[in-house]
Design brief:
Elements (H helix, E strand, L loop, with lengths): L2 H20 L1 H8 L7 H8 L3 H14 L2 E3 L6 E3 L1 H10 L1 H4 L7 E7 L18 E4 L5 E5 L7 H4 L4 H15 L2 H15 L3
Parallel strand pairs: 4-5
Antiparallel strand pairs: 1-2, 3-4, 3-5
Length: 189
C-alpha cells in the first residue's frame, strides 16, 4: 500500500457522494463521455499520473479495501475497511511529523470545515506547504505531493484528508474527535 492509495480511495468516495447528490446531472455528463471515475479524470483532479492511479486501484482491489462495481466496473471503496485502516493503521504506516514554519493550506483541525471542533492551547496550526497560500503554520508532509492542489478542487476530499491528518498528528482526544467525524462522514452514508 502507498500513501496515494488513500488519496485515491477518498476521492472515489467523494465522487460517489457527489453522484448521489447530483444524480441525473452526473448521468448526463457520463453520457457525454465525461466520466469522473475515468483514470484520465482522476489524474486531472488529483495530480497523480494515470499509471499510478491504475497501480493504486490494483493494490486496493487486491487488498480488499475496494471492489469492482458489478454493473459499471468501477472501483468502489469499502467504506468500513477504509475507515478502519485510517483510524487504526494510518498513523503507523504513514506517520506525520510537524516541520518548520511555512505558508500553506491549513490541515487537521485548522482546516476551515473543522475549525471550532477543537479548542487549541495556542499551538501553531498545521499546514500543507503551498507557495500561493496565505496561512502560516507548522508544515506537514501531505499523504501525496499533489494534495494541496487537489483539495482546492474538491471540498469533501479536503475534509477527508484533513481528518486523516488529524488522526496522523493528534493525541488521543484529537484522534477520537477526528475518528467520530470521519465515521459520520464516511460510514453514515
Amino acid at each position: 500500500m502507498k500513501s496515494q492509495d488513500i488519496v485515491i480511495l477518498l476521492k472515489l468516495i467523494s465522487l460517489q457522494e457527489q453522484e448521489q447528490e447530483q444524480g441525473v446531472e452526473r448521468m448526463r455528463l457520463e453520457a457525454q463521455g465525461d466520466d469522473p471515475y475515468s483514470v484520465r479524470n482522476l489524474e486531472a483532479s488529483l495530480g497523480i499520473s494515470k499509471t499510478e492511479v491504475n497501480e493504486s486501484i490494483k493494490r486496493s482491489l487486491a487488498s480488499g479495501i475496494a471492489s469492482k462495481d458489478r454493473e459499471l466496473g468501477r472501483p468502489r471503496p469499502s467504506r468500513r475497511n477504509l475507515f478502519n485502516f485510517i483510524v487504526h493503521g494510518l498513523k503507523f504506516i504513514f506517520p506525520a511529523k510537524p516541520g518548520s514554519m511555512q505558508r500553506g493550506i491549513p490541515t487537521a483541525f485548522a482546516a476551515p470545515m473543522l475549525e471550532g471542533l477543537l479548542v487549541s492551547a495556542g499551538n501553531y496550526i498545521y499546514v500543507w506547504p503551498h507557495p500561493s497560500a496565505h496561512e502560516m503554520g507548522q508544515s506537514v508532509e501531505p499523504l501525496f505531493k499533489s494534495v494541496p492542489e487537489a483539495v482546492q478542487k474538491d471540498v469533501r476530499l479536503y475534509e477527508y484528508l484533513a481528518l486523516c491528518d488529524a488522526i496522523r498528528l493528534g493525541n488521543q482526544r484529537e484522534v477520537g474527535l477526528a475518528s467520530d467525524r470521519l465515521s459520520k462522514r464516511i460510514l453514515d452514508k
